[in-house]
């Protein structure tokens, strides 16, 4: 028994958040030892539980340090302390996990290799030097290997690997950084690399280094399927023109740029412009792909033209596993690291399936025997106005939840949209956005979607009672929602969900002016929206303005062929078609398409901002047809002249709702083209004119409704030129402006918006 019990107090401490699998229990143990406290710490299905006994000053210091000194990957969402009777029991111990009760603990995202593990792997001289699976409580796989909670080794894909004596000693030592690191292993007891042919046969003897052999193949022009944390990548030497071109042809990916993996920030700076905020984002434990301006002058490496054809930006990421570090260090050049799939398919992650599906693409596979439980694509981000903007929130960020402005009455599932799909599960005050699923357009992706929902429901212990979905009747996500039994379903308008996702990210519940600009979304009037001005809170919205609606000649064909939208806008101008190269190119096809559109045959009306960008891109001879969503708009942004320019003027009609006349912008584009104004300047004037048009419309809404906060959402606001000009104009006129950072502005954020709208209506 400890002495002087009357001067001691005992507390029951409960910590919720990301506190499992991140070294929190050994941190608590070490802290308690330092402060001479007694008691215990353990994991359960809700988080971490602690009992601490000692003098009050020491207990106060303990509670303060729990937050201030927490491990690098830990996130504390709540910390409560209640008094208990003093026991006088000496010592402080780590007790066994308690798996009883419904799951409520948060699982940590996968985390990039920490500096200590990297030093061991690349130059430590110890038993893990050169080992591709080195990890500790501060880094390594988490979400991609966990099958169930609590996050203990038997509930992960490491269960089949029995720890050797040395690893078991580290795992059991509370003072070691590998204490209860569930994936802990070494060459004697852990996963092993293999270089195999696409038929699965081993290509090397037991004593040949697979990484050195793979590096030789990459330098010679081979395409290698590389098994990562969340799935397979297809890798080639990014400086090898033939290899890059062969990979592009094999993936049937005509234009969309590939991601590049480089050894470190210094190497990234050799091929791209890396500002301090971008360097921090590159080094973030999530290791997202970061979009960076290409270095045009004196690049350190000559990147093959097929890697990112015609792009002013490169998608760059740093290594995030020891395997990546070892491979990059051995090759000595940047590598293309693109998802292991064919276009529009989910990433391959199971070994047999990967070898079968990628056999026509890859020459060999660098694989290993640690299973991946949940496929997870790389995240994608960029820096906007000095802060990160996530464009794809996936590996490294998921399943970290977002805190909602209020506690939900019932658990909710948001099913997401059709493109860039995510789903979202919410309970209490937390919403968990899923990893990136992709476009729900084929059976493979739909199967991945349903499997992902089932897995996350089990992991979080959430059984949704309310299921929110898009209004579009043909979305597979809508069909999934309506097929669920024993739930209440709620339809949520697409653009309201965009604005709600932005409000939820900022914790805002009051009404705002919402500007939702995207490609297409089903409107509540049955037309296709996409350039919307809303007055909205989390529960309701009113459409108070929109871009002028124009026909989409050919319906879905107009999305793939921007020339159709250009000629639709020209038809709105009236009179004879102007003498432009586009008109000459499409002379044979235009007349029947125009006649069908005028009769309303397969030509739905749309107010889409994305289709307006398509029209202008075609008028500037940038793109008549696209091979991936948003390609024409990307081209238009990239070619635009930087710097402050005078935007084209456009009218705002005021009755009965505000009508933003995009046709005025097109009229000015045509006039400048006929006058021979350089294309980059025309593109810049268009962007500036559209931003001015939005700011002017918001000012009119403020006069009518007395609102002074604007939320900007939708995929069009991934365009930094448009976003920056719009934000500047709004700020200059006294608005508070909300933009996205941790939630994608594109359809990847729709599911969060659906959850918050459905829950707000359920209060």
Give a quick set of tags describing it.
763 residues, ten-stranded mixed sheet, seven-stranded mixed sheet, 30 strands, globular
Care to describe what's here?
With 763 residues, the chain is of the alpha/beta class. Helices cover 33% and strands 20% of the residues. It has 23 helices and 30 strands. It has a ten-stranded mixed beta sheet, with helices on both faces. Strand 29, helix 22 and strand 30 form a beta-alpha-beta unit. The radius of gyration is 28 Å and the shape is globular.
Topology:
Blueprint: E1 8-18, H1 24-34, E2 38-44, E3 47-55, H2 56-68, E4 75-84, E5 92-94, H3 115-123, H4 165-172, E6 193-197, H5 210-219, E7 224-227, E8 232-237, H6 241-251, E9 259-261, H7 265-269, H8 276-283, E10 289-293, E11 313-317, H9 322-331, E12 335-339, H10 351-357, E13 364-368, E14 380-384, E15 387-392, E16 402-403, E17 412-414, E18 424-427, E19 430-433, H11 443-460, E20 466-470, H12 476-483, E21 488-492, H13 494-506, E22 512-522, E23 528-536, E24 541-547, E25 550-551, H14 557-560, H15 562-573, H16 581-585, H17 587-598, E26 605-606, H18 609-619, H19 631-639, E27 652-653, E28 658-660, H20 662-674, H21 679-705, E29 709-713, H22 720-732, E30 736-738, H23 750-761
């Amino acid at each position: 028994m400890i002495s002087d019990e009357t001067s001691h107090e005992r507390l029951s401490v409960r910590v919720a958040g990301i506190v499992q699998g991140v070294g929190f229990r050994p941190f608590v143990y070490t802290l308690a030892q330092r402060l001479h406290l007694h008691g215990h710490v353990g994991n359960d299905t809700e988080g971490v539980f602690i009992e601490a006994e000692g003098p009050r000053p020491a207990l106060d210091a303990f509670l303060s340090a729990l937050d201030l000194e927490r491990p690098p990957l830990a996130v504390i969402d709540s910390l409560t302390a209640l008094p208990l009777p003093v026991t006088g029991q000496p010592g402080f111990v780590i007790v066994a996990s308690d798996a009883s009760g419904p799951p409520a603990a948060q699982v940590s995202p996968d985390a990039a290799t920490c500096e200590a593990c990297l030093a061991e792997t690349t130059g430590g001289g110890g038993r893990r030097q050169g080992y591709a699976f080195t990890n500790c409580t501060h880094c390594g796989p988490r979400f991609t290997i966990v099958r169930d909670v609590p996050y203990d080794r038997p509930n992960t894909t490491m269960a089949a690997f029995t720890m050797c004596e040395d690893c078991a000693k580290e795992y059991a030592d509370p003072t070691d950084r590998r204490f209860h690191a569930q994936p802990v292993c070494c060459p004697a007891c852990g996963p092993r690399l293999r270089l195999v042919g696409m038929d699965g046969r081993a290509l090397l003897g037991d004593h040949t280094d697979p990484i050195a052999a793979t590096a030789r193949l990459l330098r010679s022009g081979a395409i290698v399927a590389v098994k990562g944390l969340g799935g397979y990548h297809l890798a080639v030497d990014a400086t090898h023109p033939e290899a890059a071109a062969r990979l592009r042809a094999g993936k049937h990916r005509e234009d969309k740029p590939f991601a590049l993996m480089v050894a470190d920030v210094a190497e990234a700076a050799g091929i791209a412009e890396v500002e301090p905020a971008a360097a921090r984002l590159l080094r973030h434990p999530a290791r997202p792909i970061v979009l960076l301006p290409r270095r045009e002058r004196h690049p350190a490496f000559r990147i093959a033209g097929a890697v990112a054809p015609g792009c002013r930006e490169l998608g760059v990421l740093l290594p995030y596993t020891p395997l990546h570090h070892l491979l990059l260090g051995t090759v000595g050049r940047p590598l293309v690291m693109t998802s292991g799939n064919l276009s529009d398919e989910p990433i391959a992650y199971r070994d047999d399936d990967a070898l079968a599906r990628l056999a026509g693409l890859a020459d060999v596979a660098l694989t290993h025997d640690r299973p991946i439980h949940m496929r997870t694509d790389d995240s994608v981000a960029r820096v906007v106005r000095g802060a990160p903007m996530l464009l794809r929130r996936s590996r490294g960020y998921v399943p970290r939840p977002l805190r909602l402005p209020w506690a939900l009455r019932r658990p909710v599932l948001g099913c997401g949209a059709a493109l860039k799909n995510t789903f979202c599960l919410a309970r209490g005050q937390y919403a968990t956005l899923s990893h990136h699923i992709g476009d729900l357009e084929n059976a493979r992706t739909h199967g991945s979607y349903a499997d992902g929902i089932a897995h996350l429901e089990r992991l979080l212990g959430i059984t949704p009672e309310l299921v929110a979905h898009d209004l579009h009747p043909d979305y597979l996500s809508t069909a999934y929602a309506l097929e669920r039994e024993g739930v209440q379903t709620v339809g949520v308008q697409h653009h309201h969900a965009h604005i709600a996702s932005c409000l939820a990210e900022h914790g805002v519940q009051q009404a705002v002016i919402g500007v939702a600009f995207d490609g297409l979304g089903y409107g509540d009037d049955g037309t296709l929206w996409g350039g919307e001005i809303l007055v909205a809170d989390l529960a309701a919205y009113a459409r108070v303005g929109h871009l002028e609606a124009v026909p989409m000649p050919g319906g879905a064909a107009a999305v793939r062929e921007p020339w159709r939208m250009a000629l639709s806008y020209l038809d709105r101008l009236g009179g004879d078609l102007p003498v432009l190269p586009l008109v000459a190119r499409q002379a044979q096809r235009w007349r029947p398409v125009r006649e069908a559109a005028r009769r309303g045959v397969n030509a739905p009306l749309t107010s889409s901002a994305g289709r307006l960008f398509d029209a202008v891109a075609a008028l500037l001879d940038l793109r008549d047809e696209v091979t991936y969503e948003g390609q024409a708009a990307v081209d238009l942004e990239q070619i635009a002249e930087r710097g402050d320019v005078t935007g084209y003027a456009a009218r705002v009609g005021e009755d009965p709702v505000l009508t933003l006349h995009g046709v005025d912008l097109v009229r000015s584009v045509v006039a400048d083209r006929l006058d021979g104004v350089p294309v980059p300047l025309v593109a810049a004037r268009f962007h500036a004119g559209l931003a001015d048009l939005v700011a002017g419309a918001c000012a009119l809404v403020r006069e009518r409704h007395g609102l002074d906060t604007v939320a900007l959402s939708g995929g069009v606001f991934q365009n930094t030129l448009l976003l920056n000009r719009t934000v500047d104009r709004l700020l200059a006129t006294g608005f508070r402006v909300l933009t996205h950072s941790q939630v994608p502005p594109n359809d990847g954020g729709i599911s969060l918006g659906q959850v918050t709208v459905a829950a707000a209506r359920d209060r």
